[in-house]
Specification:
binds pyrroloquinoline quinone
C-alpha cells in the first residue's frame, strides 16, 4: 500500500484482514462450535481463555493511562467497567468465572492461572505489551478485531447450546452481554482510526496492528489445538484432564 486510502477504503482494508485472519477461521473454533470437542477440550478452552479475559481490563487501563483527552477517557473507561463490574459478583470477568464454575474448575485454580498453556500467557502478554509500547492509534486499532466478534459470538452461542448438553444458557451469559458491548466498542474504535490514520504510514501502522492482534488470537487457538486436540501434547505444568486440582 503506497497511496493514501479514503476512510471507506481503509475500513474495507481492515475488514479484509479480518476476513482472512480472524480466529473464526481456526479449526479449533470450528470444532468448538460444531460440537466436535469433548467436555475436557471445552474445559481447556474456558480455562485458558480466562487469562485473555483477565488481561483485557489491564490492557484497557494501559490504553486509558495514555489518553490525555478526558472525553476520550470517559468513553474508553466503560470497557474496564464492563469487565470488572461495579462491585463483587458483577462484570464480564465474573461471568467468565460462572462458565468455568459450570465446568467444575475451582475458582482459585482458574484465577491462579497455574494450569495455563505457556503460549496463552505469551500471546496475551504480547497484546498488553503492544498497547504499552506502540502509538495510541495502533493501540486503539489493535482492538478492532471486535468488529468481527459479534458474528463469531452468535455462531458460538448457537453451536455450543445445540451441541453440548453440559453447557447451559446461564453458563454462556458472558457472551450475551458482549453481543451489545462489542459493536459499541468497535464502532467507536473504527471511527477513531478512520479519523486519525491520515497518512500512508499511519494507515500501514493500523493495518499492521490489526494483523498483529489477529495473530494474538490465532496463536492461543494453535496452542489449545496442539495441546488438547492433535497431537494432544500438553506442555509440562499445563492443566491435564483428570488431574487433581486441590489448591
Ligand atoms: O469471543 C470472541 O471471539 C472474542 C473476540 C475478541 C476479539 O476479537 O478480540 C474479544 C472478545 N471475544 C471479548 O469478549 C472481549 O471482551 C474483547 C475485548 C477485546 C479487545 O481487544 O479489547 N477483544 C475482545
Amino acid at each position: 500500500m503506497t497511496t493514501l486510502l479514503s476512510p471507506a477504503a481503509l475500513e474495507a482494508a481492515l475488514r479484509d484482514i479480518g476476513h482472512r485472519r480472524y480466529h473464526n477461521l481456526h479449526p479449533f473454533h470450528a470444532a468448538l462450535h460444531g460440537g466436535r470437542l469433548s467436555r475436557d477440550q471445552v474445559r481447556a478452552w474456558a480455562l485458558n481463555r480466562y487469562f485473555y479475559q483477565a488481561m483485557i481490563p489491564v490492557k484497557d487501563a494501559t490504553i486509558l493511562a495514555r489518553m490525555q483527552d478526558p472525553a476520550l477517557r470517559r468513553i474508553w473507561r466503560q470497557r474496564i467497567v464492563d469487565h470488572d463490574g461495579t462491585g463483587d459478583g458483577d462484570g464480564g470477568l465474573e461471568r467468565w468465572l460462572k462458565l468455568t464454575d459450570s465446568l467444575d474448575f475451582p475458582r482459585d485454580y482458574v484465577v491462579s492461572t497455574r494450569g495455563l498453556l505457556p503460549v496463552t500467557r505469551y500471546a496475551v502478554q504480547a497484546y498488553v505489551e503492544f498497547v504499552r509500547e506502540r502509538s495510541l492509534l495502533e493501540a486503539i486499532a489493535s482492538s478492532l478485531t471486535e468488529m468481527f466478534a459479534p458474528t463469531i459470538i452468535s455462531e458460538r452461542l448457537a453451536g455450543m447450546l445445540a451441541n453440548y448438553d453440559f453447557i447451559s444458557p446461564q453458563a454462556l451469559g458472558y457472551f450475551d452481554k458482549r453481543l451489545s458491548q462489542a459493536p459499541r466498542d468497535a464502532d467507536f474504535a473504527l471511527d477513531y482510526v478512520k479519523q486519525h490514520a491520515t497518512s500512508v504510514a499511519l494507515q500501514q501502522s493500523v493495518l499492521a496492528a490489526l494483523a498483529f492482534k489477529c495473530d494474538v488470537l490465532w496463536a492461543q487457538l494453535d496452542g489449545l489445538h496442539h495441546a488438547y486436540v492433535t497431537p494432544g501434547l500438553p506442555p509440562p505444568g499445563a492443566w491435564i484432564p483428570g488431574m487433581e486440582l486441590a489448591s
